[in-house]
Amino acid sequence: MIGYKLVRLEKNGKGWLRKSYLMEAYGVHYVPDRWVRPQTSCGPLTVFRTLNDAWEFTRRNPIRIPVELWKVEYEPEIKINKVWIPGVDTPIEHLEKGTVLARSIRLMECLQRMQLYDEADL
Fold first, then answer.
1. Is residue 20 within 8 Å of residue 68, measured between CB atoms?
2. Mean pLDDT for the chain?
3. Structurally, how many domains does the chain consist of?
4. Rg from Cα positions in the chain
């Protein structure tokens, strides 16, 4: 299936790493054109169903980090209706509007690289 994913960019000695947008400790490193899965004891991954859902998220959640918006291919998670990391479960109803759960994700096309800012900075 096709969806949309925001990934956080982090510079290291070899260039830019693409990481999970919000979860640092249990996040995933994304590599274009490679399938990724959640870390052990975590899951599933999240994507936005539509491009509009992803844009709406960026409007509602201004932050100060460089991100990329990607068109992705994903394998839907059909048996689970929550996201978890050790010690925390979040039902899908409490996730952002338009979020769908995925067993695996492949970054296909970078649609935009952006720096999102807090409204106070504008």
1. no
2. 84
3. 1
4. 14
